[in-house]
Amino acid sequence: MYEVYATREVVISAGAIGSPQLLMLSGIGPWRDLQNLQPIIDPKYLTHPDDVKAAVEGARIALRLMDSKAMRDIGAKPWDIPLASCEWAGPIWTDSYLACLVHHMAHTTWHPCCTCPMGSDGRAVVDPELKVLGVRSLRVVDASVMPTIVTGNLNVPTMMIAEKAAEMILRENP
Question: Which segment of the chain is annotated as a signal peptide (predicted)?
Answer without folding.
Answer: none
